[in-house]
Amino acid sequence: MSDLMEFRRYYFGLGALALGIMLLYLIIITPSVGLYVQVASALADLFVCGIIIQRTSGLKGGYGLYLLGGRRGIKFINGLAKDKYHIWDAISLWGLSMGFGLSTYLLMRGKIDKRILAIGIISIIAIDLLLISYIDYGLQFLNIPRLGLSNYTPQAIAITPLLLLTLVIASLFGFSGYALFAIFINSASILYSVSLLISNPTPAGVAASGIANQIPGVAPIIPGITLPLAAGVISLAIILIIHEFSHGVLARKAKVKIKQIGILAFGFIPVGGFVEPDEKQVSKLKPIPQTKIFSAGISANFIAMIIFGILTFLVATYVVPGAYHYGLSVAGTTEGYPAYGVISVGSIVTSWNGHQVSNITQLDNAASTDTANAIVTVTTNKGSYAFKALPDPSDPSRGLVGVSMEYVPIINTPYGKIVRFILAVFSISALLNFLIAVVNLLPVPGFDGWRIYRANIKNKTAVNVLGALIIILILLNALPWLF
Hints:
The chain has 483 residues and is an alpha+beta fold. The protein contains 15 helices and 12 strands.
């Protein structure tokens, strides 16, 4: 009877897995339901599948999450740990310096090589001045309202008060300090909007509060929905592998036993990797060896960020111009204006009033002479149109035809599509490695930053209070998604 029950449970789990995959596929190919519905449906599907898989297989886990692990790969980690030149130790401390800036010296009570600390500070400044535009390049591939930028192109760094403030905060407190600063500022802005909404809890009050226009500080990352499917999966796999293997290498260098290596899955999608060291042995280590283990994954993500940021720069600068170009695409038309329902969304605008246009600046110049009741000619890849412009409500002398544009890549060849895919992998990998490293530095239970704080700060109550505060602020940063 027990064998029959096991048989039924096994095939029930397989059936649930197959059904869950089919449902997720249907969710991905039905964007017409709206992004919020897609994300909520996908999370619900993965949650239920994860619970069924975990319970039918007897794996460790809960709430849709479960661990799949084994001992394969431990020999590889042992080989990497045989480092005669202490390169891994230096990399780990360099990443720690990137994460906490000059405050690393205080965090570790002066027990850090000052040369490594200096290199970390220089790296922060160099990234902020030279590479950050190409790390942000991946934003154009995100399908997240108010976060994704389909028209993003790297801009030359301009020395502004905001940039100087960024450099000061990042140099003193690292990228984690700047992330905390951004979370606090964004939370304050959201709280202000919430206070306005509380004073006028009506639909008009929601609009007046501006909360629907606030940029959320957190967003779901789901390949196929908020990320390109193939490029997103590859990028996440890179992050998981290098992060966890780096933890394992530093653990073995500290003579800590590795129990198993594996992945953390949510439903049937890997969302994290893990290298499970013997926690009892880790807890017996002194603070510095513990800190090296905890910061190793973060350091690996920073290195990957730099590598993929440079690759993004090279592809975007030297390959993309010959593979495809950017142009003006019709993002939508406004009801009540002459272009509404006439020019189809996605059309490529090539001429405006007889002037060739291929970017926003050229379009603005060509449309600057449009006046109310004048005839405006628009040429696209699908035809030419002539409209009688209507008065602009904010400036009656100006004429509008009701077309909104976005600056998008124009890809006409298989080669261009291949280049676009490579650029997506590189730029998404650069962006997500940076975000994963920074988020992991936060003093939140379960994150590497939490363990770093607890290993180096004796006042555990202070760490607990800080962690609770950060969790509250993170939840607050997610509030705009409800509006």
